[in-house]
Amino acid sequence: MSEFTRYSRVLLLMVLGLSAGACYGFGTFGFEFHHRYSDPVKQILAVDELPAKGSLEYYSAMIHRDKIIKGRRLAAENDQTPVTFLDGNATYRLNSLGYLHYANVTVGTPALWFLVALDTGSDLFWLPCDCSSCVHGIRSPGGPVI
Length: 146
What we know:
Blueprint: H1 2-20, E1 29-34, H2 39-45, H3 56-70, H4 72-76, E2 100-107, E3 112-119
Antiparallel strand pairs: 1-2, 2-3
GO biological process, one term: proteolysis
GO molecular function: aspartic-type endopeptidase activity
Protein name: Peptidase A1 domain-containing protein
């Protein structure tokens, strides 16, 4: 019986290996994660108020982010302790950016890429669409157009 299961496993692996090359969806979806202060995000968003790497503001923002990751309790506290780096003791908080991560998402054939903001509180994101032949609404069976 063990010889049969070994043979069936090998056969299954061979079938899966050969069929992977014939998969039409293979390689049509991919994405890269970027931090909100990374160079690709700065280039695409063209935002000048993001802190420069190596600056006091950059490290202050990183420490604030680490506190949030370490625990939501620390983020809720109003900690007024200054963060000190070499020459300074000023800390800046950038609340306007929110707590988002950005990703380059590649979709379709031919591949099109989009920079999307990922909200850590949700498992959904929307891709922008500027085509004129797209669906603009869906009529539900007994209700209004959504």
